[in-house]
Amino acid sequence: MKNVLTALSLCLFFSIHTYAQEWAPVGARWYYETYVWSPFGGVGYAAIEVTGETEVNGIQVKVLEGNCGCAESPMYTYEEQGKVYLYVKALQEFRLYYDFNLSVGDTLITFDDALLQEVPVLIESVSFLDWNGDIRKVQHIQYLEPGYSEWGDRIIEGIGSNRCLNFIFPTCDPVGGYIRCFEDPNDGVLTLDPSVPSCTYTPVKETEVDPVAWEAFPNPVSSELNIIIRQPIALPVHLRLLNQLGQTVGERPFPPFTERIDWGVESLPPGLYFIEIQVEGKGTEIRKVIKN
């Protein structure tokens, strides 16, 4: 079960079959799209599967193996009265991740296992998904803490968040993206991304895309980061700056033929950061920079 809300180290979308089926039955699978940072834009898939049951801290739990990024496998989870709990290894205890009982206006207090802190999530609206007669609640959510907005925008009952968390870790390779399919051993396959031909689809690259020639300096940086595109191109450039937790701390679009970008970073706390440059038609690349 991927935790829409967990700390960037979890990557599962497990589920609660509250109506007639066992929750997260052995054999259930979540399929996610994945991306490779280098050289550019490689796309594939990753799967997480319920492989069995075991006991952790005296609680009977499901075992989930596989990942879509940096998630540590196996993961342990259980459900109780519509609430899903996931084992946080750093604390050696279970924390709440989903509550499918919540409705419009309620707040879910989930847990970020990277920062080891609670994260409030507002249920903005609720809709319903009909899967072969099995009605699933869909919670449309808004994160109330800055930096979490890219963790997905809805939680599907019995499936979880619509995005794999680890995509925000620039150090993960590959990183996880949106969920493609959920497979239930009893109900079959639910396709959540109709744009792909199959759950395991991997596009074939016919030609390699030339990388963008760019550099960032100084590194380490104290006050102003200078980014030079040595071979300007007739395409828009989108730049993001991420902290070491993968959270966006700055974002700027630039027009075609951009040659130089000067970015003031004096207000940022010292630490490791990642510069993400995205050029239309040429993919995305990430580089590290140290802030003094």
Q: What is the tally of helical segments? A: 0
Walk across the major sheet and give the strand order: 6-5-4-3-2-1-12-13
- Tally of structural domains: 2
Q: In sequence order, what are the helices and strands, one letter per element?
A: EEEEEEEEEEEEEEEEEEEE
Distance between the termini: 38 Å
- Tell the overall outline: globular
Main sheet specs: 8 strands, antiparallel
Structural class estimated from helices and strands: mainly beta
Cα gyration radius (Å): 20 Å
- State the low-pLDDT regions, or none: 1-21, 166-171, 206-210
Task: Give the gist of this structure.
The protein is an all-beta fold and 292 residues long.
